């Protein structure tokens, strides 16, 4: 459930991810980056650090972070890849691993992922496999990365067969989420991350969803509401990850909207100009609620309320909202069959009995999903 009121402006909050020997803290708030040097140096005093970033984020914060790490007694090296989903690829992974080795990063040293979800996933996976495992720190610079991908240890790259199909569970040693970095995000990128914030309310926290409905405007601005939204999201994710680190059970709830979303991303060729991940998740969550309503599981009003809230912020909620179209119901169902959330040919979805009442639905008939999508495409 939603805890506490928004912290006063300027106060950093810490969320602990309780994973025994692999436990770590998430430090959240405006100005958290200013403490990155000293906090990271405590993990490897006098050691080396490879800062993996992309050209855009690196130009904004790369040198500043490198200088902070140097002042804290670390020896940093900057490693940059092009921005965009295309960097979650085997060629870029090889480049990053080689750059880490060329910087002579050893087992006691660190990899620091400075960027959005692409960088966190790529750098985290490089850290997982280079020298059979290096410790790494996440400094997420997008809302989506701060509330989802930087927490929980899922790392990886994409394959021609689908998204995130090659990877490893590798927990970070520390996450630093400076919410002031979100000031420079485009409105579109912020909105896309906001879909993942709303997700936590839809999974099991109806009070948080209601709070989001009332406070969305404030969350989009710089201030305590934004920090609160990030902290509640991280707390919710930390609790799920602590219960089920490797997605044997409950963690699958975090995939609400994602079976539809991954199929949509695949159908658009991962073309971020048409559809970014968070937008696909917004459509996916709206579809999951409408599908649940159609199956008689969830009140129609709840499904409508989800769609209305997401759309009120400019997020897409219908298949027709994807520019350029997304093909047929059959191709979407086929794309779902390739997703990791498929076991022995059966589709697994996260469906809902209402807002904040999501559950794992195994063995969903592909024919029901196809019929539903046919109706959606016809504008039903
Ligand atoms: N993004 C879903 C998870 O981390 O499990």
Structure in words:
By secondary structure, the chain is α/β, with parallel strands linked by helices. The chain has helices at residues 36-43, 55-71, 90-102, 117-129, 143-149, 187-204, 206-220, 224-243, 258-267, 277-294, 300-312, 329-337, 366-377; strands at 13-17, 24-29, 48-54, 75-81, 110-115, 135-140, 154-159, 162-169, 174-178, 342-343, 346-352, 358-364. Helix 1 (36-43) packs across helix 2, helix 5 runs parallel beside helix 8 (224-243) and helix 6 (187-204) runs parallel beside helix 10 (277-294). Glycine (GLY) binds at residues 148, 152, 154, 251, 254-255.
What's the helix and strand layout?
Elements: E1 13-17, E2 24-29, H1 36-43, E3 48-54, H2 55-71, E4 75-81, H3 90-102, E5 110-115, H4 117-129, E6 135-140, H5 143-149, E7 154-159, E8 162-169, E9 174-178, H6 187-204, H7 206-220, H8 224-243, H9 258-267, H10 277-294, H11 300-312, H12 329-337, E10 342-343, E11 346-352, E12 358-364, H13 366-377
Parallel strand pairs: 2-9, 3-4, 3-5, 5-6, 6-9
Antiparallel strand pairs: 1-2, 7-8, 10-11, 11-12
Helix pairs in contact: 1-2, 3-4, 5-6, 5-8, 6-7, 6-10, 7-8, 9-10, 9-12, 10-11, 12-13
Bound molecules: glycine.
Glycine (GLY) binds next to loops.
């Amino acid at each position: 459930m939603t805890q506490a009121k928004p912290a006063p402006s300027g106060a950093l909050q810490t969320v602990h991810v309780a994973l025994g020997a692999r436990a770590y803290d998430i430090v959240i708030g405006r100005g958290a980056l200013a403490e990155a040097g000293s906090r990271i140096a405590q993990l490897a005093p006098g050691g080396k650090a490879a800062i993996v970033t992309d050209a855009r984020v690196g130009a904004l914060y790369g040198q500043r972070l490198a200088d902070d790490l140097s002042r804290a007694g670390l020896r940093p090296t900057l490693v940059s890849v092009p921005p965009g989903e295309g960097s979650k690829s085997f060629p870029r992974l090889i480049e990053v691993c080689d750059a880490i080795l060329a910087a002579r990063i050893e087992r006691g040293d660190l990899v620091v992922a400075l960027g959005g979800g692409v960088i966190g996933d790529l750098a985290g996976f490089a850290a997982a496999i280079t020298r059979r495992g290096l410790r790494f720190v996440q400094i997420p610079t997008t809302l989506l990365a701060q509330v989802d991908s930087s927490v929980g240890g899922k790392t990886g790259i994409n394959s021609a067969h689908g998204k995130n199909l090659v990877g490893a569970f590798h927990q970070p040693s520390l996450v630093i989420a400076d919410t002031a970095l979100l000031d420079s995000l485009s409105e579109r990128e912020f909105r896309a991350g906001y879909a993942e914030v709303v997700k936590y309310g839809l999974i099991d926290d109806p009070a948080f969803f209601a709070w989001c409905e009332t406070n969305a405007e404030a969350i989009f601005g710089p201030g305590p509401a934004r920090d609160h939204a990030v902290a509640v999201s991280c707390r919710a994710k930390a609790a799920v990850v602590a219960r089920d680190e490797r997605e044997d059970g409950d963690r699958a709830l975090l995939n609400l909207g994602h079976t539809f979303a991954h199929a949509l991303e695949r159908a658009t060729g991962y073309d971020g100009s048409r559809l970014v991940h968070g937008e696909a998740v917004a459509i996916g969550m709206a579809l999951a609620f409408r599908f649940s309503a159609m199956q008689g599981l969830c009140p129609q009003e709840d499904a409508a309320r989800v769609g209305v809230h997401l759309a009120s912020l400019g997020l897409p909620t219908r298949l027709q909202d994807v520019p350029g179209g997304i093909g047929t119901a059959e191709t979407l169902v086929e794309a779902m069959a390739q997703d990791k959330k498929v076991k022995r040919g059966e589709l697994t979805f996260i469906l809902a009995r209402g807002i904040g009442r999501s559950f794992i639905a195994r063995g969903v008939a592909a024919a029901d999903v196809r019929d539903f999508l046919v109706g959606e495409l016809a504008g039903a």
